Prior knowledge:
By secondary structure, the protein is α/β, with parallel strands linked by helices. It has one domain: TIM Barrel. The chain is about 30% helix and about 20% strand. The protein contains eight helices and ten strands. Strands 1-2-3-4-5-6-7-8 form an eight-stranded parallel beta barrel, surrounded by four helices. The chain has a two-stranded antiparallel ribbon with strand order 9-10. Helix 1 packs parallel to helix 8 (about 200-210). The protein is globular and about 40 Å long. It starts with 7 loop residues before the first strand and ends with a helix. The relative contact order is 0.17.
Amino acid sequence: MAQDRKIWIKICGITTAEDAESAMNCGADALGFVFFQKSPRAVDADKLRSILESGRNDADRVALFVNPTREEVEKVLETGLIDRLQFHGNEDQQFCNSFGMPQIQASRVRDSQSIKDAFKKYDSADMILLDAYSRREIGGTGQTFDWDLTKVLSESQLRKTVLAGGLTDLNVLKAISTVRPFGVDVSSGVEVSAGKKDLYKMKCFIEGVKSV
């Protein structure tokens, strides 16, 4: 189905200044930085500074957390380099709202009910990110979920939906046509290895999204 608006594009799991610059050059709207030490794409506040402080500022900068302490979030926010927070664990809405920042709340999709529950539980989030469910990994699994499950969402809910999970330049057009989300989020689908982006894959992915 044709879109009458631009699809928001987030490249997640950025770990180097070179990859951040490349993503922006390719046309990414947002860069994601993972502050979860169990992830192979993890960075910390000092690493964030080294990636961003001397570079361009053409994209939203999103800090991703998984069940963080307040101190962990505040330490990252103190850098002054973050525009938006993303929570990917079991954080409650009061905690997420308490930082006074635009936020993305991630939900790992098991079935259509889990999608409806996410929109009900996190109704104050600016965006709801739908990702594939895995027992072993929080995210970045490279696995898709059944996009037809999103048929339970209303038009107003789709306008705040970000689709993630196993997206690549080969399937993103079908994903957008099926779900019609506000945006898409990709990590492993544009990588050479975990945490190292592939310029050609990023370029193909973003050009594919922009062609819709």
